[in-house]
Each structure stands twice: as C-alpha cells, then as structure tokens.
Design a protein that fits this description.
Blueprint (H helix, E strand, L loop, with lengths): L4 H6 L7 E2 L2 E2 L1 E2 L10 H14 L9 H20 L8 E4 L2 H16 L5 E5 L8 H10 L2 E5 L9 H7 L4 E7 L11 H10 L3 E5 L11 H4 L3 E5 L10 E5 L1 H6 L10 E4 L4 E3 L13 H17 L1 H20 L4 E3 L9 E6 L4 H10 L2 E2 L1 E3 L4 H7 L4 E5 L6 H18 L2
Parallel strand pairs: 3-15, 5-6, 5-7, 7-8, 8-9
Antiparallel strand pairs: 1-2, 4-10, 9-10, 11-12, 13-14, 14-17, 16-17
Helix pairs in contact: 2-10, 3-10, 4-5, 11-14
The protein binds ligand C6P.
The site of ligand C6P has 17 residues, from helix 4.
C-alpha cells in the first residue's frame, strides 16, 4: 500500500464523524490508536464463525480458533524478530507484562541490596512494579536523570551501573515527551555488568523498527491497542533461557503439565505464563492490526510521522505563548506543550470544542512532570492516518486559545 492518507483514513470508520459539530481530528494516539475495519471484522468473524476455547477442544471450531490464535503469536514473533514464537507471551497489556517480570524474575533473582535502574522518563507502569519489588526485597531503585530537553543523561546512567545492578527497565520512547532513548547503548552497558534489560515498548513498537535479536534486550513489553489492535491485550517478549528460569506468574489451567494434590509440574513456555482462558478474540484480531502495519511498512510510517512532527513544530513555532515541552533530538511523533498562562486541561477542553482530541495532564508520568516543574502538558500524538491539514487545524485552534492570554 502506498502512503495515501485518504485511502488509509477510509479504513478507519471511527474517523468519519463530527464532534461538537466539527470533523473529528484524532490526536490522542499515544493513549490508544483507532482500529481499522479489518480488526473489527476479525473480531466479529471470530465470534460469528469460530468462537471456541483453545488448546483443549477435540472439535473443528477449537482447532480453528487455536490455529488462528497461534498464527498471531507467529506474526508477533516476526514483527519484533524474536527467535521463536515460544518467546511471545500474551498478557493484558504493557502494564501486566512489566508486572509479570517484576513478580517472577524480580522475586526470584533480585534480593536485598541489589539495584534496579529506571529513568526519570518512565510511565507509572515502569515505576510502581519495581518500587513494590524493592519494598518487598529491600532492593534499591536508582533513577537516571534527564536534561531540560527531556533526554536521559547517559554519563549519569554509566555512573549508576555497578555489579549491584541486577536489572535495567527503560522506556524505549517516552509517552509524555516522545524522546527516543539510546536503548542499544543502554542494553550493551547493562549487559556488561551482568544486568538484565526490559524495554517498555508501549510507544516505540508502533513507530520504530524494533528487532529484539539485534537489540539483544532480555524483555520487551508492549500493548496491542497502541498498534491499531484491540484493548485488553499486550505482549511480553522474553529470551527463552530467561523465561525458562523464571517461576510462573499465576496458577491455573493451561500453565500446568500435570496436577496432583501433592505437586504440580508446569507447562513449557509460553503457556507457563498464560494461566486460564486467554483473550482469544482480541489475540486473533491483533493479527489484522499487525498485517496492516506490515503492509504500510515501518520505514514509510516513520517518514510520514516524522514529517507530521516537523510540520507541527514549524507551525507551532509561529504561535506566541506556545511552550514546547520535550525537545529531544530523537523523537517519535509526540508534540507535548503548554500555552503560557493557561492550564493544560482548559486548553484540552477548548481544542475538544473544535473537534480536536488531545490528552492533557501528567500522562501517568508524575515524577517526570515534577522534574520539569510542570503540573502537566497538552499532548498531541500523531499516527498513520493523520495529515498536515489536521495539524493546520490544531495550529489554528492553539493560535486562537493563545491569543486570549498572550495578546
Ligand atoms: N500510555 C498514554 O496515554 P497499558 O495501559 O498497559 O496499555 O500501557 C501502559 C504504558 C506503559 N508505558 C508507556 C510508555 C505507555 O505510554 C503506557 C500507556 C498511555 O500515554 C495511557 S496512560
């Protein structure tokens, strides 16, 4: 598929509506992306034709559902270039993926006085599970500081590394500012002291090529709903040898080999980590979302989104009172800002009145906002179906709002 915006937009039914009497401009893609018709069709086709539990039934529907479910696992494997499909675990989302690692790898391998490194840029999902673990194990959480422009200070990260470092959990691309972290360097340096590395790929997997074998990360966590797929579904990638060394996350059906009242033996990966009936319909529909991304191609997606961000920066720089937040050299398509003298929430409400959907507030990154001395920001985040003419509408809306306070 060539990068034909009108054609791409025609695949997303939700985009074709008016909000408050204005055509919808959807710029809240970092929160969740919209779903193409193919994903919606896959959901109804599954329920209309194939609905069945998987990995258990001795009948045609169960076979079909199992096959489609495992086809998605294979597609995810290829999407991130994992070595094998068994390294792909389905979870509820990035949040659950990170919690799984903290609760299993963390509980088994991290002890008193050990250190875990995260950064100032982290989403709460990549802070709180590690804080909980540190509290339980008397381990220590270390934080990589950032510059005013929102980039981690790499030299400070190097100073934090020591033989005590057991784990580095780092966001690949910041949801609040868009900053892309130098993850390859971080992974190499962490491995050099024997630490394992988890990448929070919630915001990177939809914008950038993410090749887990090339990166050599031990874990990658991400959510289907930020990749044009359904909500309530996430992925945890882990290297086979690391996953095999970890205890299970939850106990129940599917994750066992054999159960007696005396002793239970656990299933092979990935099933060891997938207790209970999984989110079958959404897993099956996720394949259509990944097929859609693959058809467009990550390279062209990145080019398009970089163009949108550059254009947005150019348009906004003309506006008196526009304050950009997060000006890192390497960014995904996130435009975070404030308007001089205005609360971000009020800006968001005024944009909404013009049909423009943005997110406002702390973006689940309260420590980051505290570091920047801000209560929050307004965040416009761009996806494959967004266009320069929509950015013009954003610029016009912001200009009108800024004029109120910045005459
Ligand atoms: N960020 C945003 O508006 P879940 O909720 O589990 O799908 O993803 C959590 C998460 C973890 N890490 C990063 C970097 C994220 O951006 C998110 C989700 C959304 O920015 C909702 S808070």
């Amino acid at each position: 598929m060539s990068f034909d915006i009108e054609k791409i937009r025609s695949l997303f039914p939700v985009l074709h509506q008016e909000v408050h009497g204005k055509p919808l401009v959807y710029f809240d893609n970092a929160a969740t992306t919209q779903k193409p018709q193919a994903v919606l069709d896959a959901l109804t086709t599954y329920y209309n034709h194939d609905n069945s539990n998987i990995h258990r039934g001795a009948h045609a529907l169960a076979d079909r559902a199992t096959r489609y479910f495992e086809e998605t696992r294979e597609t995810v494997k290829n999407f991130i270039n994992a070595k094998e499909a068994a390294e792909i675990i389905f979870t509820k989302g990035t949040t659950e993926s990170i919690n799984l690692v903290a609760a299993t790898f963390g509980r088994k391998f991290i002890g008193k006085g050990d250190e875990i490194i995260i950064s100032t840029l982290e989403h709460h999902s990549n802070i709180v599970p590690w804080q909980m673990l540190c509290e339980e194990k008397e381990a220590v959480l270390r934080i990589i500081p950032i510059t005013e422009s929102g980039e981690i200070i790499y030299a400070e990260f190097e100073k934090l590394l020591s033989p005590k470092t057991k784990f580095v959990s780092i966001v690949h691309a910041s949801n609040a500012l868009g900053t892309i972290n130098p993850v390859q360097k971080i992974i190499n340096a962490a491995h050099a002291v024997g630490a394992k590395v988890l990448l929070d790929g919630a915001q990177s997997t939809s914008h950038l090529e993410v090749d887990v074998q090339k990166l050599d990360c031990d874990f990658l966590a991400f959510s289907a709903h930020k990749l044009y797929g359904p909500t309530g579904l996430g992925v945890l990638y882990g290297k086979r040898e690391v996953l095999e060394a970890m205890p299970p996350f939850q106990g129940g059906g599917e994750m066992i080999k054999e159960v007696t009242f005396e002793k239970t033996t656990y299933n092979e990966i990935p099933f060891k980590f997938e207790a209970g009936t999984p989110n079958i319909a959404d897993v099956i529909a996720f394949k259509s979302a990944l097929d859609f991304i693959n058809l467009l191609g990550k390279k062209d997606i990145k080019t398009h989104e970089d163009e949108l961000l550059a254009y947005a920066n150019e348009r906004m720089s003309e506006i008196k009172g526009f304050i950009p937040v997060g000006t890192a050299a390497e960014k995904v398509s996130v435009l975070s800002f404030n308007i001089n003298g205005m609360h971000p929430y009020d800006v968001g409400m005024m944009l909404d009145a013009n049909g423009i959907a943005v997110r406002t507030g702390h973006h689940c990154t309260q420590p980051l906002m505290k570091r920047l001395g801000l209560e929050g920001t307004v965040r416009a985040s761009f996806a494959v179906y967004n266009s320069k003419s929509e950015i013009d509408k954003l610029a016009e809306g912001i200009s009108r709002i800024a004029r109120i306070k910045n005459k």
